[in-house]
Amino acid sequence: MVNLNLISNAVMEVIFVAKSEMINVTSYDSSAAVWGISSDDKRVGLSYNKSEQKIFRDIYTLISGNITAFSYDGKFLKVTWNNEYELKLFIPFYLELQ
């Protein structure tokens, strides 16, 4: 039960960062990080450390452990906890046309 509560809190934090803090995705590494710009023009995002199986807000603030999969394909962010719970969010990659 405690583990499920920790996972649900982590899911809410990932959603908050991805949907509320990031206005758009400006750069990404498909298996390690998603970066965007916040409303106050600061860099914000999610990074994944595969060897530690942890996801971080920016680089230093731990959101959760037990992350068994993390990917971003330019449209969807997928995060999996314990090979059991998966979050899939639509976050389009922002490409500025000049």
Outline the structure in words.
The protein has 98 residues and is an alpha+beta fold. The chain is 20% helix and 45% strand. It has one helix and eight strands. The protein has one helix spanning 2-21; strands spanning 24-29, 33-37, 43-49, 54-57, 61-64, 67-72, 76-81, 85-90. The strands form two sheets. A five-stranded antiparallel sheet has the order 1-2-3-4-5, with helices on one face. The protein is globular and about 40 Å long. It starts with a helix and ends in an 8-residue tail after the last strand. The model has no long low-confidence stretch (mean pLDDT 90).
What gross morphology would you assign? globular
Order of helices and strands: HEEEEEEEE
Which structural class fits the helix and strand makeup?
alpha+beta
Head-to-tail CA distance between termini: 51 Å
Largest sheet: 5 strands, antiparallel
Oligomer: single chain
Going across the biggest sheet, name each strand in turn: 1-2-3-4-5
What is the overall number of helices?
A: 1
Q: Residue share in helices?
A: 10-25%
Report strand %: 35-45%
User: How big is the Rg?
Assistant: 13 Å
Strand segment tally: 8
Q: Mean pLDDT across all residues, rounded?
A: 90
Uncertain runs are: none
